[in-house]
Structure of Serine/threonine protein phosphatase:
Amino acid sequence: MLKALLRRKPKPAAPIDTARLPDGRRVYAIGDVHGRRDLLDQLLDQIVADDRARGAADTHIVFLGDLMDRGPDSSGVIDRAIEVSQSLGENAHFLMGNHEEVYLGAASGDEKLVRFFCKIGGRETILSYDITPQDYNELSMEELAARMPALLTRRHVDFVSGFKDRIVMGDYAFVHAGVRPGVPIEDQRPKDLRWIREDFIMDEAPHDKLIVHGHTITDDVEECPNRIGIDTGAYMSGMLTALCLEGGERWYLKTGQ
C-alpha cells in the first residue's frame, strides 16, 4: 500500500501538436510489418528518398515490433531488418512486440508455445524457413516443436532477442502495444508494453510522453491527443506506414497508395 501511495505519477506529455524531437534529429517509425518483406522494401526505399530530399540530419529508424507472422516472408523481413541494423548501427532501433515474444518462446522448442505460435500466425513464419508445406502438415506438434530450435536460425533468434521494450526521444515514447495508464514510462511492465490493448486505447488521459505504437490495427493512422497508432494492417491491407518526425513536424509515408 505504501509503495503504491509513494509511486510517482507521470507528468502530462506535450500535446500532440507541440511535441518535439531534439534539434537536428529525424525519426522514421515503422508500424507492424508481419512478414511483408515486399512492403518493407518499398517503405524503406521511400524513407531513403525522403531522408535524402530533406537534407542532413541525425536520422533514426524505429521498428515498432511484430516483424513476423501472418505474412508470407517473415524470414526475409528479419534478414532485411538485420541489414538495416548493420547499416545504421545505433541509429536503428527494434522494439519487442508480442509476436517477437512468442517467436522466441517457440524457438526454444516449448511445445505449448509452439502450438500458440501457430495459432497467431506462426505457421506462415515457419514456412518462410527451410520446411515445405507438406512436411509441416505431416509433423505432429511434438515433432514440430523438436525441430524449432534448428529451424528458426540462430542468427535470427539472437537478433530478435536483443530487441528493446521502449525507446524515448524528446517528447515521444515508442512502444509496441501501448502503456498502462497512470504509470510512468520507465516503470512500465514489459507485458503491458507488448500486449496491452483496450485499457490503453480507450484511455484519453495524457501520459508522460506522447506514445507512438502499433499492435492495434486501424484503417489508417490514428492520431489522438495522447498517442499515435500506426498499425495499418499491412499483412492484409497492403499499407505499411511510417510516422516521420523532425523537430515539431510530423508526416507519414505509406505503401499501397
